[in-house]
Amino acid sequence: MSHPNAFLAPLGRLELARCVVDAGWSLRRAADRFQVSVPTAARWAARYREFGESGMGDRSSRPASSPGRTPRRRERRIIALRVNRRWGPARIAYLLGMHPSTVHKVLSRYRLARLSWLDRATGRVIRRYEHTRPGDLVHVDIKKLGRIPDGGGHRAVGRAKGWSNRGHGKDRPRQGYAYIHTAIDDHSRLAYSEILPNERQETAAGFWQRANAHFQGHGITVLRVLTDNGSCYRSRVFNDALGPGIKHKYTRPYRPQTNGKVERFNRTMTEEWAYARPYRSDTERTQAFLAWLHHYNHHRGHTALKGQPPASRVTNLRGQYT
Fold it and tell me: Under a CB-based contact definition with an 8 Å cutoff, are residues 147 and 177 in contact?
């Protein structure tokens, strides 16, 4: 759409048409004066005669008819598959014998939500939120990871050797699990995390006390904590560790999306640290964790923060580390 005051936009077209229709100029004279072709001058003069000033605006470039458009019956079937089965364009296209780009255009035309915006269980659009200040809400969760045997697991040395390194005899007990306790601020996405030996109530309570002290050290006063319904979080020991000044909230049962920010952190952590490269021992992986956590908080761009790291949203944190 052209600017309303641009040369030969609606205002210039109106002036040209008035010269021809009202002032009696010839089409060639008007075309030379406004530096356009004679057919262009004739077109705007004809529109002015028929529609007046309202005919000087831009018209839609959409064709009067679209004989190649997907039939309405086929469009309704595409929409039904998307809504009822929550399939993507490619899968719908293969079923109906169409091209995926055509299915995508139909879905876009009817403004159907992306699958990434929907809850897979219910099909409802996920309601995303972000608190306005650091400390208004802190998400807490535990991620369980299998320990790596000395010599490396199957990712580092292959399945046969990795199975041998694990060992299951009396002389080589099972490796067990490492429990990664994490607290992440809802507003800034600043994360505090520790690798601990279990998920008992005393361990979770001690972790929260250290996490709270970490946040307080950077000027963040925690008002609410959100956890799942795990037994360690429902214990009296953990609630005593929270203290009277912090409100404890629980997620809905079987709804991990409610605690989505820490769940997404766990996914990022496993992709960029735990499984980012093959480790030869659990000690080697543990030693790499603090460096990765520092990178996450201070250097890694976060998409929800417009490419800035979490430290950029915490006043007392940015600039203290390199």
Answer: yes
SS3 call for 182: strand
**Measured distance CA(48)–CA(188) in Å, rounded:** 58
pLDDT on residue 320? 47
Please report the DSSP string for 11-40 in residue order: HHHHHHHHHHHTS---HHHHHHHHT--HHH
Neighbours of 233 (CB within 10 A): 24
Give residue 321's pLDDT.
46
Asked whether the predicted pLDDT for residue 243 surpasses 80, the reply is yes
Rounded CA-CA distance 209/201 in Å is 12
Residue 211: its H or E element: helix 201-217
For residue 74, count CB atoms less than 10 angstroms from its CB and return exposed for 0-12, middle for 13-18, buried for 19 or more: middle
Q: Match 């008002």 to its residue by tokens.
A: 223
Residue with tokens 């067990």: 176
What CA–CA distance (Å, rounded) separates 104 from 106? 5
Identify whether the C-beta of residue 120 lies closer than 8 Å to the C-beta of residue 86: yes
> What pTM was estimated for this model as a whole?
0.66
272-280 average pLDDT score: 90
Nearest C-alpha neighbor of 294 from the set 268, 322, 272? 322
Find the mean pLDDT for residues 6-13. 81
224-227/247-250 β-pairing: parallel
Lowest mean pLDDT among 53-62, 213-222, 282-291: 53-62
pLDDT given for residue 57 in this prediction: 87
Other Cβ atoms less than 10 A from the Cβ of 208: the count is 25
Do residues 111 and 198 make contact, with C-beta atoms less than 8 angstroms apart?
no
Q: Enter the tokens of residue 187.
A: 């507003």
Largest Cα–Cα separation, the chain: 108
- What distance in Å separates the CA atoms of residue 98 and residue 92, rounded to the nearest whole number? 8
